[in-house]
Amino acid sequence: MLKQFVRTVDAVNQFVGRFTSYLLVPLVAVVCYEVFMRKLFNLPTVWAFEMTVYIYGFHYMMAMGVTMLYDKHIRIDIITLQLPQKIQLILRLITFWLVFVPFIGAMLWAGTEYAAKSWMQWEHSWSAWKPPLYPFKTVIPVSLALLFIQGFANFIKEWYQLKGEKI
Predict the structure, then answer these.
(1) What residue spans define the domains of the chain?
(2) 3-class secondary structure per residue, the chain
(3) pLDDT value for 114
(4) Stretches in the chain below the pLDDT threshold 70
(5) Model-level pTM greater than 0.85?
């Protein structure tokens, strides 16, 4: 059952990561369109800057889970790399509970409240374009939830690895 959970979480985050990577195409298109309109026709858009922020923000946030899946997040492990593999695993398992769960859990809680408040107010941007903000703010708890469950999946993988098993 745990192995199926890990495979499912890995597959979901891999799918989300692939989908998110394709958002770079519209991001580049919006930036190119804005540059083209601004420089050639002197007709800057009202919406392009904000749209690039939203697309890139979505891209950045939703990539957290897949980054954790492939262990590509930034980490300072100068000292721990000098330790034996088994000790490194034990330290990762301990820091998962001491650092990861409380920090991401608190961020998930706060992000959920932040998004819920935005939905309750039907919040819109302050700009002239005034797009709704609540869908974009919903990305915060969704991406943190994906990161949180990927953290648990990685914890399970490392636990099995410590026992000498593979998932």
Answers:
(1) 2-162
(2) CHHHHHHHHHHHHHHHHHHHHHCHHHHHHHHHHHHHHHHHHCCCCCCHHHHHHHHHHHHHHHCHHHHHHCCCCCCCCCCHHHCCHHHHHHHHHHHHHHHHHHHHHHHHHHHHHHHHHHHHHCCECCCCCCCECHHHHHHHHHHHHHHHHHHHHHHHHHHHHHCCCCC
(3) 98
(4) none
(5) yes
